[in-house]
Amino acid sequence: MNVIHLKYPHQLAQKVKDQPYSLAIGFFDGVHKGHKAVIESAIQKAEELNIKSAVMTFDPHPSIVLGGRNEKVFYITPLSQKLDTLEKLNVDTVFVVNFTSDFAKLTPEQFIEYFIIDLNVQHVTAGFDFSFGAFGKGNMELMAQLSNGHYGVTVIDKLSDIEEKISSTRIRKALQDGEMEQVRNLLGRAFEVPGIVVHGDKRGRTMGFPTANVQAMEGCYIPATGVYAVKILVQNEWYNGVCNVGYKPTFHNPDEKRLSIEVHILDFDKNIYGEEVIVGWYKRIRSERKFNGIEALIEQIEMDKQQAIAYFEELR
User: Fold this and answer.
1) Distance between CA 181 and CA 311 in Å, rounded?
2) What is the pTM of this model?
3) In whole angstroms, what is the distance from residue 153 CA to residue 159 CA?
4) Which has the closest alpha carbon to 124: 13, 49, 16?
5) Is residue 83 domain-shared with residue 220, that is, in the same domain?
6) What is the pLDDT of residues 79-127, one digit of tens each?
7) In which domain, by residue range, is 273 found?
8) Alpha carbons 188 and 165: distance in angstroms, whole number
9) Which run of H or of E encompasses 234?
10) Gyration radius from the chain CA atoms
11) What are the strands, taking DSSP E only, across 7-105?
12) DSSP 3-state of 156
């Protein structure tokens, strides 16, 4: 997959301009089921037209540049993860547009000129609610009106489940609440956090539950504190596990806020310090709490482990 970073005003090599594209356009945070419908439609159109497929996304999040949000925005998929996910969808090219103040001032007509026509886009696919240009004045109806025969347009309708529209906002709320089964349903896959295994306090080993202490990749969102049934990718193989996210109140002063991600990997006995891993989150088993002594904690961890085993047995 070819990744091309663009900044307004941008210059493109002639060979890039000569390549025609079927383009899916959007921010695509999470690359959830709704996003996949847009991207897969663009790929199908590329096959029909015998041209390359492309995705246009933006970095950073527009709200960071434009403001107007009270809450802090976090990414479901930081850019590197988003690119990995798009590559798995067999996208040929990704345009990453640097979202700046100058870019935000472009009129809809200017956006189409510089980022559609100048890129030799022959077909544009986006969701029904995609907007572009200053103050979001451009919509997909206007995109079609301004094509002047240069490109075709496909609009993907709202994708909903039994509750409401599938959206990145819903996924963020579910992540904050630790509702990982809902997150997995909305994404169409487990939420994943890449990281590296680092040295911890090794207390789990003394209790009979050795854990991999995972330092998450910078920028990743960590779900709500608690105990989860997870899978972990180690050396290209997935293993079931139980993960504790939190501050270990049984051992640590609650005023010392050091968030940790510790995974007890089932049926596993290897030294993996320094290994890059990916944690896939499946179900929240319980909230984190303080126990009255080590024995009570060990008993609860065994119960958590059995719940995780039973969950993955049902999932098969």
Assistant:
1) 11
2) 0.86
3) 18
4) 49
5) no
6) 999 999 999 999 999 999 999 888 999 999 999 999 999 999 999 999 9
7) 190-315
8) 14
9) strand 226-234
10) 23
11) 21-25, 52-59, 93-98
12) strand
